[in-house]
UniProtKB/TrEMBL annotation:
This is ABC transmembrane type-1 domain-containing protein. It comes from Mesorhizobium escarrei. The chain crosses the membrane at residues 33-53. The keyword Membrane applies. Keywords: Membrane, Transmembrane, Transmembrane helix.
Length: 82
């Protein structure tokens, strides 16, 4: 969504540009947009992978901790009975 918003802003800026320097600035900025879109997509994928791995690790930690608590509690009750 961000590249589309940036494209709209750049087109608006180029229409409002006065003078050759301003037109050059907006044209050059528009030319760099595909590379920026690729970088933003890579950042989004890295962020999604980070959130996914973090969620999986947290879920595993909670599951293992619950299992370990149950296991130790049953061991303690069994040793107490004897």
């Amino acid at each position: 969504m961000l590249p589309l918003v940036l494209t709209g802003i750049l087109h608006l800026g180029s229409r409002l540009a006065r003078g050759p320097l301003a037109e050059w600035f907006w044209a050059d900025t528009r030319q760099q947009l595909p590379g920026l879109s690729l970088a933003l997509m890579a950042l989004l994928l890295a962020l999604a992978a980070n959130v996914g791995v973090s969620t999986m690790v947290g879920s595993f930690r909670l599951t293992f901790s619950g299992w370990l608590d149950q296991r130790l509690a049953s061991e303690a009750l069994r040793n107490r009975a004897h």
